[in-house]
Amino acid sequence: MPLLAGLGGLMPMVIILIVFLGLMSFTTRRNMKKQQAARKDMENSMVEGARVMLTSGIFGTLTHVGDKQAIVELAPGAEIVVVKQAINKVVSPADEEFSFAGETAEPAPVDSVAPQAAPVEPAPVESAAAESGDPVAAQSATGDPTTENKPSE
Q1: At 96, which CATH number?
Q2: What are phi and psi of 54, to 5 degrees?
Q3: For every residue of the chain, which 3-state class applies, written as one string?
Q4: Which of 68, 91, 123, 129 could form a disulfide with 141 if both were Cys (CB 3.0 to 4.6 A apart)?
Q5: For residue 97, what pLDDT is reported?
Q6: 131: closest CA among 101, 105, 100, 152?
Q7: 60 vs 102 pLDDT, higher one
């Protein structure tokens, strides 16, 4: 007992420290259980056709949902397979900032489409290289290593 007598002044501090660590441990475990339950509920609510956001911030539509994996359609015809843990949340239309043409109920009127200009044909590469008088450019343009810059006779 003489050993404990010397710690008499520190005993209340040790008790307070142990109680504090116990409370922190209890609250941490409780929060982890809540997060796990919320994650499990979210995974159970994933159905085909739901819009989701991946952990990378990419939005997509669920096309197939398995036990551990899901197939997410990023764009029409572009699908990827992800593990369910890569899905951050199921989003509502209010969570998305943009809407796309395929998601609107009404198509855009034909008059609102701006006419496109005709494509511009690029100038032939061979004539531009030959006119510059540069033998290296002429060689690379024609692909012939024997081409030399000869004056016309």
Answers
A1: 2.30.30
A2: -80, 165
A3: CHHHHCCCCCHHHHHHHHHHHHHHHHHHHHHHHHHHHHHHHHHHCCCCCCEEEECCCCEEEEEEECCCEEEEEEECCEEEEEEHHHEEEECCHHHCCCCCHHHCCCCCCHHHCCCCCCCCCCCCHHHHHHHHCCHHHHHHHHCCCCCCCCCCC
A4: 129
A5: 77
A6: 152
A7: 60
70 and 31 both lie in a single domain:
no
96 lies in some domain: yes
In single-letter form, the type of residue at position 41 comes to D
Position 11 scores a pLDDT of 85
Looking at the structure of the chain, the number of domains it has is: 2
What one-letter code names the amino acid at 31?
A: N
- Terminal CA-CA length for the chain: 119
Range of the domain at 91: 47-101
Confidence band of 105 (pLDDT split at 50, 70, 90): very low
Comparing CA positions, the residue from 43, 73, 48, 69 lying closest to residue 58 is 73
* Top-confidence residue, 6 or 54: 54
Cα 123 from Cα 56, distance rounded (Å): 43
Encoded amino acid at 43, one letter: E
In the predicted structure, residue 23 carries a pLDDT above the cut 60: yes
